[in-house]
Amino acid sequence: MYTTTQLDNGILKNYSVEPKTYYAQYPAPYEQRRYLIRGVIAALFISTLMLISALIS
C-alpha cells in the first residue's frame, strides 16, 4: 500500500496515484468527416423518431 504521510495520531493519509496527463491531438481530416457523417445520421434518426411520435399521437 502506498502511503504518503502519517499523522501524529496514527491516521494514514492515502492518496490515489494520478495518471500521466497528455494533450489531445486535433482530429485528422478523415476523422472529421467520420464525425460529420455520424452527426448527420444521428440527426436523421432523432428527426425520424420525433416525426413518428408526432404522427402516432
Question: What is the structure about, briefly put?
Answer:
This protein is mainly alpha-helical and 57 residues long.
What features would you describe in this structure?
The structure is a single chain. By secondary structure, this protein is mainly alpha-helical. It has a domain at about 25-55. The protein contains one helix and two strands. A two-stranded antiparallel sheet has the order 1-2. Strand 1 (about 5) and strand 2 (about 10-15) form a beta hairpin. The chain is elongated. The relative contact order is 0.08. The mean pLDDT is about 85.
Topology summary:
Blueprint: E1 5-6, E2 12-13, H1 29-56
Antiparallel strand pairs: 1-2
Biggest beta sheet summary = 2 strands, antiparallel
* Total number of helices: 1
Mean pLDDT: 87
Alpha-carbon distance between the termini?
A: 60 Å
Strand order of the largest sheet: 1-2
Number of strands: 2
Q: How would you describe the shape?
A: elongated
Estimated structural class: mainly alpha
| Weakly predicted, low-confidence segments | none
Q: What does the radius of gyration come to?
A: 25 Å
Strand content: 5-15%
Percent helix:
40-55%
Q: Spell out the helices and strands N to C.
A: EEH
